[in-house]
Amino acid sequence: MSQKTPMNRPPSNTATTTIPYRQIRALYDDTTITVYQAYSPAIASAAVAAQRLDASPDFRPGRMTWVKPSWAWMMYRAGYSYKDPRQARILALRMTHAHFLALLDRGVLSHHHGGGDGGGAGHGGGNDPESEPAADAADAAAEVRIQWDPERTPALDRLPYRSIQIGIPGSLSGRWARDWVVSVEDVTDTARALKRALDQDPGLDLQTLVDRGLVPEERPFPVPDSILTRLDMTRPEPSL
């Protein structure tokens, strides 16, 4: 995770009472933003070597691909890369702000998983282990699916606010992988080092993990009012 960010803002999870229920938090700089996904070793190795996500023939652009800007949620979904051998390599994928916002501008809130922890079933080690087994009629349209799932701590504990998951439809995923991902970095070793550090000392706080380079400094990513409305980002935390 070599992308640099200003260090004058606190990490996103330091004051849960001030964090909106739905907010996009990410590692970003002046031009690019990082999202994450876990892939098979064959897809990941080819992608890093060629700096093209679709470099491996195992990458299937017809599938819906779910990406997320939250490092902690990626750790939760992939079990720090140990959960499934088909998801054994975690990639940091950088996009320009403009292309990231273009995805959100096509976003449609998904209620397929009932607004819960999301993720869906696997499909046997294709380009996205979280997607549905096959593209359906809805995927033929270039609608981007948006889910708001419970955010996680680096130790995978559930937090009271939500993290965005972005489902890129099969009709768009080829173009996204080919043209919209500007760099590919394998961050699997960082994920595993994070797990080792927490196993050795579960009391490590977030700032210590950031200082060690095991957790990126994620900041609120600003979006225009049109996207705030489209993605229902002003919704308050539901009362219990």
Topology:
Blueprint: E1 25-26, E2 32-39, H1 41-50, E3 65-67, H2 71-78, E4 89-96, H3 97-105, E5 107-109, H4 137-140, E6 144-152, E7 158-168, H5 170-180, E8 181-186, H6 188-200, H7 206-211, E9 219-220, H8 225-230
Parallel strand pairs: 5-6
Antiparallel strand pairs: 1-9, 2-4, 3-7, 4-8, 6-7
Structure explained in plain terms:
With 240 residues, this protein is α+β, with helices and mostly antiparallel strands. The chain has one domain (37-230). The protein has eight helices and nine strands. The chain has helices spanning 41-50, 71-78, 97-105, 137-140, 170-180, 188-200, 206-211, 225-230; strands at residues 25-26, 32-39, 65-67, 89-96, 107-109, 144-152, 158-168, 181-186, 219-220. The N and C termini lie far apart (37 Å).
